[in-house]
Give the backbone structure.
Amino acid sequence: MNCSKAQGRWLFLGIAAVALAMAGPAAADWALDFPASATELGNKVRGLHHMALIICVVMGIIVFGALGYSLVKFRKSQGAQAAKFSHSTKAEIIWTVIPVLILVGLAIPTARVLIEMEDTQAADLRIKVTGYQWKWRYEYLDHGISFFSNIDDASNAASIRGAGLELHEHYLRDVDKPMVVPVGKKVKLQLTSNDVIHAWWVPEFYVKRDAVPGTINETWFKAEKPGSYRGQCAELCGRGHGFMPIVVEVLAQDEFDAWVAGLTAPAEPEPEPEAEAEAAISQASTAAAGGASAR
Ligand SMILES: [Cu+2]
């Protein structure tokens, strides 16, 4: 049996309606636009995107509007006759100058932001970031602090098939030791890798930079408000690629100083083993003497 065209159309609409209804729960999580950035530079990048998008939309409306208008207004059934000219210097100048102006208008602010993004000078804090399969290592070059940042134990335990554990809010997005930085300070990152190419990505900072073995890549960010910011490796780097999240804790300067002091403070000196043994002997002999006198 052959479907008529109208039946086919209704079938298509029916399938589309069912698909849309099924997509309902997923659609609830949809959001338009990129997230607002936690950094001033990130918001400039976002502004650039908005500017380019608006220019594209305006151009699209003008071009497709003119196309639609021409198709309808000058259709053959209305007796339209095609123009016979083959060259127009005026038209060529117009369609060269307008795109050049648009491109220059886009290029100037873009170049400004790109130059600012690449300017890693005058940083308040320098951190070397090394990607490993599958964890990150942070070395605070000005403080002598260095540690690995692994995925948290709760995520690890819950990710085992059949574990039956409840998935916590930041499942696969939490770490044991986050990167800690002070608020409002320019943090310069020097990225490299120990094995394969990874990429350090924190969307709210608008920072994503490859960590390549044998090379140091640089980037920077300056977080404007305290909080926890999450990201992940953004370069497919092997079996554990999805298990090397990034957490950056942005703290007030005094809290950051306390964190540094806690990690760099010299450990309590351990009692020397000889002195310890002597103390034990003298304690025992005192106890024995006490016991003898009591008898
Ligand atoms: Cu990776």
Remarks:
- The two ends are 115 Å apart (CA to CA).
- The longest helix spans residues 40-73.
